[in-house]
Amino acid sequence: MVVHLLNRERSPTFRTAPVLARSLRAALKSQVWVWIPAILFGFSGCTLTTGAPKARVAEDAAPTAVPRPSDAPRERRVSEGVVAKVETGRLREEDLGLEPEAGSAEAPSERIIVPPELTTSHPERAAALRLTEQARELLVAGTDTGRAVSLLEQAIALDSHTPYAYYFLGEAHFRLGAAERALGFLERAASLLDANPYWASRVWGLRGLIWESGGERGQALDAYRRALALWPQNLTAVSGSARLEGEARR
Amino acid sequence: MRRARRVLITIAVAAFLLAGACLVREWFALGRVVEEKFHRRPWALPSRVYSAPLVVYAGLDLKEIGFFERLARLGYRRVAAPVRFRGDYRLDPSGLWLDIVLHEFSYPTHAEVGRRLRLFLDGRLLRGIRDLATGEEVFTLEIEPEIVTSIHGETWEERGVVGLGEVPPTLIAAVIAAEDSRFFQHHGIDWLAVARATWRNLAAGRIVQGGSTLTQQLMKNFYLTRERTIGRKLREAAMALFAELKYSKQEILENYLNEIYLGQNGAQGIFGVAEAARFYFGKKLADLTLGEAALIGGLIRAPNLYSPFRDPSRALARRNFVLRRMVEEELASAEEAAVAEDEPLVLRDAPAGTNDAPYFVDLVRRELEERFGGKTLAEEGLRLFTTLDPRLQRAAEEAVKEGLAELERDYPVLRRESPEQRLQACLVALRPATGEIVALVGGRDYRISQFDRVTQSRRQPGSVFKPIIYLAALEEVQGGPHLLPTSRVRDEPFSWHYDGKEWRPANYGEHYWGEVTLRRALQMSLNAATARIARQVGIQRVVETAHRLGINTPLPSYPSIVLGSVELAPLEVASAYSVLAAGGVLAPPRGLTAVVSADGTVLEGHPLTIHNVVSPQVAYLVTNLLSGVLDHGTGRGVRERGFMRPAAGKTGTTNDYNDAWFAGYTPDLAAVVWVGFDHHDHLGLTGAQAALPIWTAFMLRATRGTPPARFQKPPGVTTVRIDPESGALATPRCPSVIEEAFLAGDEPKEPCPLHGERLWERVPAEVPSPPPKRRERAKAKPWWFIF
Fold it and tell me: What's the alpha-carbon Rg for chain B, to the nearest Å?
């Protein structure tokens, strides 16, 4: 099932019930700040597209009809499990190096969704973001951090201004035990994501974790506080600062 | 008489016993040889050097990025029928899609299983990719790395090693039918075949047929020499008997299939059926058809004579002979053989036999030999994954070769008789954000000189060092004063006194321009002005900045270093420019990404590491200045030669005109070119004359088919329109106006004092964004607005 909020004009279907269901699911599964915009977007009739499963193509048989270029797959597929995040997920155009669209929502993004037009205007950037998203999924699954690193490096080679790739490389290397290397990537991510409070907060939160794990508690607490100042709902920072402040009180 | 007979008998018995003892000793000696060959790893497996994979995604021009050439070099076969086997691809006649079955490939971090994909095309542009098995969309596709070369020991052999279970029965049948149909009946020597061969050879009066069994052939291959004596034949026969006693038929057959010589690729021998399948058909063994298996079986007799690359019709005749033998021996049915005889010969494109990147491979080899040792590299079958981009490497090779030929044609004084003394050049290209060395040409001709001028030579960089001075000058140090692109500096002769000495920097041609801005000083590569800036900044800061940018050569603290008097390796220069291209990030140059053992264990990973060494804002300012060098300064030849993408760069010429440089970059590719003579002969040309044309030719080829990228202006940088003469805000009266970048807050606030300052004449300071397109404006309105 595919849901996409960005592609409003091309929507072949308009169904409200699935939106409600998804929004409710989102409400159950995610944080408050995640599902409220989901419902709002859902009811405002944004976009629900290409819900039907893709037709399988016979492996050996030559196609009976000549497909039009528009039959080429589009970047709308997402897996079922992340619907809530998809519905709130939206990249800020300035993060992509594009001019901001008037009135664009600033909902924070968990899943990285690539606007279809980016494939035409900045194909290398679109590819880099997709690689980043693939790597993010691997990191979420926790199955193959090495592969995630490889994908993220490819993303940076394609487009060195993919800020999320630096962030997730920091996360991946932290998991692999290379804290120093991780901090290098996070510094770069911070410089690219400076204007986005949600992501800047995540960067500080992760820095806090790294410093905390390295025993630098003062620096870690400072990082958590900075993260909270930027985005008070940052769970990493909330728990991290509570932990360190509790320890300090004891 | 009787006594004599007894003595004779005793002597005979003694002689017999002695001979027997000798034979037994020899038997066991030969047995030890056989055991040794069977027990220890019987083959020295060369390490393979792999290039980077080709990453393909929607929006790319497949032709321009060399997609089809890459497929051809990897042994993919274009077929007319629907794709069936790994390595098949088919371009639909409508041109709207291309089906491909990928090769299996084991990457260090994952494996490609050989997916069947459909690539949707719009002319030459890739529109999208879909997995035909699952129907899922594929966003990025990796075409497996090419083998750049193999690292060999004394014998230059290409060999793939497989277990008997991996060899298809049809191929085993073909080999047995062609070479030794009674393999499973005899015990190492086929006396019947020997008798038949002897009879036929006697009848013909020359050797027309051999009677060697597979086991005997295998024993023959255990020797490195090709001696043909009775003694050698007897030893081979004895070893064959011993092997048959000691080992099973399966073990012998497996060794044979991996050992046998099956052709030649340049100076490299092709050994083993797996390597032969890859070499001739670009296939894995499991994917061979009956006809292809028969062709490989038929090659054993005389691989070069029956090579399908050399004479396809002879190869087909031999294949059909083997097929008939298979039918006679009941190893294939007549129907199967008839179908196989009708199979057309579909070969991969004849593979190049040479190493495309010898200097790069040497770099990798030198690095690894320190840790693994040369023997391990040559014999343990390591897989070395590198950053080399074969397309860019070829572009670099061509640019250097053609550039030097052009220089020698235009300046005959540069020609030399001796190949060792000819004009030299080197080129290195990096991905700035990752430090990946994507192309490296260490010299004009590797066969003449293996000295790598990119990493092993040290030459004076001349003016390509100057951007480091400007970077240091533009940087704020703890909020302290710093210069601006519009800061003015005097370009006049002066003396710099240090340690009781005097140094007088002089401009090219002794021309001085008076007071100039930083931008103009860098664009025109003015030595006196640059030296003044360096004096203001301080030598220590210049040295410290250079080291931050990845220049590891120790730099002395004397003034002339600011004009590039200290010898540097071109790779260090490339590293420094990469930092600017990557927005202040140093990713140390690297050629290796992973080292994997023959059994698939990752022995070493070389992940990306970055150091944030310069603020993105200052890096952008320097890039902006260096863009001006290409657009209006000493590097404008780049534009004149047709390279119009966003780029920045700097020419470099040493005082004695012995070294010519050009260093430059786009956001995703940095390259440095050096031109000169190894023995410091007089070159007499500037960087713009000698190195710039090579750099431009390379960049034109290297960026073909890829979307142009622009330098991203980081937050904290403001761009305003200024009068380049005064450095103040431009007015309509200013004869020329440029856009200049400043750290936010540093931008000029006052209008140009030279060309009018009436309020109504001021132009907007901030560069306005282009107006939205009509469609976007319409979209911004609600749908009911039209009512």
Answer: 35
Tokens encoding A91: 């990249």
- Chain A residues in contact with B616 by the CB 8 A cut-off are 191-192
Please, are residues B321 and B291 in contact by the beta-carbon 8 Å criterion? Answer: no
How do residues B205-230 score in pLDDT, each as one tens digit? 776 667 788 888 888 776 545 566 67
CB-CB contact of B548 with B586 (8 Å): yes
User: CA separation (Å) from A69 to B82, B238, B292?
Assistant: 20, 69, 37
Which of A74, A23, A88, A11 shows the shortest CA–CA distance to A48? A11
- Partner-chain contact B96 A126, CB within 8 Å: no
Residues sharing a CB contact under 8 Å with residue A24, sequence separation 6 or more, in sequence order: none
Judged by phi (left if over 0) then psi (alpha if -120 to 50, else beta), residue B63 lies in alpha
Q: Which residues pair with B428 in a beta bridge?
A: B440, B672
- Radius of gyration of chain A, Cα coordinates, nearest whole angstrom: 20
Q: Helices marked H in chain A — which ranges?
A: 17-29, 32-43, 83-88, 116-121, 123-141, 145-158, 163-175, 179-192, 197-213, 217-230, 235-249
ipTM of the prediction: 0.74
Write out pLDDT tens, residues B539-591.
Answer: 999 999 999 999 999 999 899 999 999 999 999 999 999 999 999 999 999 99
Q: What is the mean pLDDT of chain B?
A: 87
CB B469 within 8 A of CB B628: no
| Coil, strand or helix at B427 | strand
Q: Which of B300-304, B484-488, B491-495, B691-695 has the lowest mean pLDDT?
A: B300-304
Using the beta-carbon criterion (under 8 Å), do A72 and B434 form an inter-chain contact?
no
Chain A neighbors of B57, CB-CB under 8 A: 123-124, 126-127, 130, 158
Q: Strands B424-431 and B602-605: what pairing?
A: unpaired
Q: B 38-67 residues with CB below 8 A of A?
A: 55, 57-60
Q: Which residues are within 8 A (CB) of B369 and not within 5 positions of it... i.e. 6 or more apart?
A: B377
CA B169 to each of CA B180, B244, B289, B329: distance values in angstroms, whole numbers, following the listed order: 15, 22, 11, 14
Q: What would the DSSP string read from start to end of B267-307?
A: TEEEESHHHHHHHHHS--GGG--HHHHHHHHHHTT-TTTS-
- Strand pairing class (B738-743; B717-722): antiparallel
In terms of Cα–Cα distance, which of B140, B143, B246 is closest to B188? B246
* CB < 8 Å & 24+ apart, contacts of A138-145: A139/A168, A139/A171, A139/A172, A139/A175, A144/B109, A144/B110, A145/A172, A145/A175, A145/A176
Distance CA B322, CA A29 (A): 67
